[in-house]
Structures are given as structure tokens and as C-alpha cells.
Amino acid sequence: MHGGFAKKYKLHVLEDFEGANNAGHQALVGDVDGDLLYVSKDGTNENSGVFGEAKNTIKTFDSFEAIDDYYSTKVSPGKHYDSRLTFKVTKHKCKQLLKQPFDGRKCLMT
What is the structure's pLDDT at 45? Predict the structure, then answer.
């Protein structure tokens, strides 16, 4: 507790409206103590890219520019995130929001 209130963490939702073959792509980013934990389903192992076994990505970045550079070069060449929504949440809520299906969520909570 900090001054009687629970510490707030930033949780960001990144959106590319034309990603995933125009179905739209979103990623979660947890911002805790300056580290940005990127959690995303970046395509699949199938040719279509939308359906099939997911390629889940969990990576740490030092800036949103680095995340967008990774996305536009490694995930969806030439595309960029269109928007970022930011929420302030407690550690408990972060754990709930990132609970499934990603196993790397504990990195965000340290």
C-alpha cells in the first residue's frame, strides 16, 4: 500500500486495425518500473496467419518505439500500431487480466 492506496500499474492495449489479414491485431503491454512487457499472439504456424496454432510472443522492450519497430519488421512488415489505450490497474487486476493464456505473465508482476 502507498499512502493508503494500492499501487497502480499501467496496462496498455496496442491496436493495428488492419493487422491479422485485416481482422485487426491487438497486443497487451505491461509497464512496471520502466520495463515494457509485450504479450501478443503474433500470427500462427499456418499459412493463413489468422487460424491455427498461435505464435505467442512475450518480450521485454525499453520503449514503445522499439515495440512498434519489432511489430513493423518482424510481425507485420510495413504495418504499425494505430492506437494505444492505457489503463491504470492494481497488481491484482494485472494478474487477472493477463492470467490466460500466457505463462510469462509473472514477469510483469515482479
Answer: 65
